Amino acid sequence: TQLLEQSPQFLSIQEGENLTVYCNSSSVFSSLQWYRQEPGEGPVLLVTVVTGGEVKKLKRLTFQFGDARKDSSLHITAAQPGDTGLYLCAGGSSYNTDKLIFGTGTRLQVFP
Amino acid sequence: DTEVTQTPKHLVMGMTNKKSLKCEQHMGHRAMYWYKQKAKKPPELMFVYSYEKLSINESVPSRFSPECPNSSLLNLHLHALQPEDSALYLCASSQPALNTEAFFGQGTRLTVV
Questions:
Q1: How far apart are CA A63 and CA A49, in angstroms?
Q2: How far apart are the first and last CA of chain B?
Q3: pLDDT at position A31, please?
Q4: Nearest CA to B9 among B65, B77, B89?
Q5: Which of A30, A102, B35, B85 is most buried per CB count within 10 Å?
């Protein structure tokens, strides 16, 4: 069974602080996605990382895919209250490409 | 159009009722998904349709019955549900491919009373 463990589980910070969320697995993934979900809404795709060692930037968000394609991180610079939400990493199963496996989730709260 | 539309947004049903959740996408995606999400938990996969055929059933109880009438539509028929089935039900679609980028609907908040 392929599992994606995220840490931390919860994060509560002040506006302007930096943070990093980690997504780890013992399995290799062909790609990983990051989603953000707000209460009562569906997850929204933020980015897909495909190549080991890849770094992608989306404004204040920086995503990295591990060299071995088993882990990923999301770094947010100068967090804002609008960044509040549930952050989910997800990867396609190696056994069934139709199956998207979600990580355990990181709930971020940014206070003004 | 990059939207996945789910109806209804909210549903309250009794344990003896029969209801259906509906999902529609017009992105030409050939894979569609149903997920169940409990409060403060990640989404759990229920069913996957690929090219209108059921490809994954994650051992979901038979009181949940999926249907894919065509490549744009996905239904979830509900019958004799239990209160513990109350959750946010999410539909998603993607292109069947190795990099499974999924686009999600807003979900249906289901309450079983």
A1: 8
A2: 36
A3: 87
A4: B89
A5: B35
Q: Any bridge partners for residue A89, and if so which?
A: A34
The pLDDT score that the predictor gives to residue A93 is 73
Q: Is B33 on the interface with A (CB under 8 A)?
A: yes
The answer to whether the CB atoms of A96 and B98 lie below 8 A apart is no
In this predicted model, what pLDDT tens digit does every residue of B12-55 receive, in sequence order? 999 999 999 999 999 999 999 999 999 989 999 999 999 999 98
Q: pLDDT (tens digit, 9 = 90+) per residue, B52-85?
A: 999 888 889 999 999 999 999 999 999 999 999 9
Residue A21 one-letter amino acid = V
Q: Which of B100, B103, B106, B108 to mutate to test the interface with A (most CBs of A within 10 A)?
A: B100
8 Å CB contact of B43 and A31: no
